[in-house]
Amino acid sequence: MEIPMKILVTNDDGVQAPGLLALAQAMRKLGDVTVLAPDRNWSASGHVKTMERPLRVRETRLADGSAAYTSDGAPSDCVALAVLGVLDETYDLVVSGINPNANIGHDVTYSGTVTAAMEAVICGVPGIAVSLNSLPEHGELDYAPAACAALRVAKQVAARRLPEGVFLNINVPCLPENEFKGYMITRQGLRVYRDALVRRNDPRNRPYYWIGGDFPTGIPEDGTDVGALAAGYVSLTPLQLDLTARSALETLKTWEF
Ligand code: MN
Q: What is the pTM of this model?
């Protein structure tokens, strides 16, 4: 008998987020699912390794009554803890999400959802990040179409294996599944951030600051994650941790020090 795949499911929105429940339920169709996710929202926390304080792991339950684990660490801490054996298990795949908002272009460096998949690849386990491209006007979200897309992709990862050092960043349009145009392999596009400084005074009249502004947009160029979502496709971007700007190497070698 074939040994079932062991899948770790995590997220950056907290263990009780509805996107995580939808993802865990979908992944149970592919293998044995363990959930270890943060006990609070770590969205836009980047790639974290907690080193200056102890981490705790405790049992909890998802809204469907299934057993899960939660930690006071970041999403990447959750992956590291799990892969290092905190639950005395090993994993064949790490899937992170489903984040309610897209993680496209430069978002990947901020995203806790994506950095959980980054941590997986560092640990030598295939990683997939899944995000839904919802906008503020979408209201209550249906994660089922994105969960189906995640399952389709995870099945391919299980059957074909990812290249060494590569993890997948999936972004799903906020549409019913039968309205997806298809699945498109993309590169990172350009986000347009519209951040603005919000400066206010606290009750003791000391200034405090908030990085506010409008929801980001993007340049919907063909072949990019931004373009795929704009055209109604599920976007699959293969990412790697090597951020070297190869095109700059030769120029910099002409500098004199
Ligand atoms: Mn999030």
A: 0.96
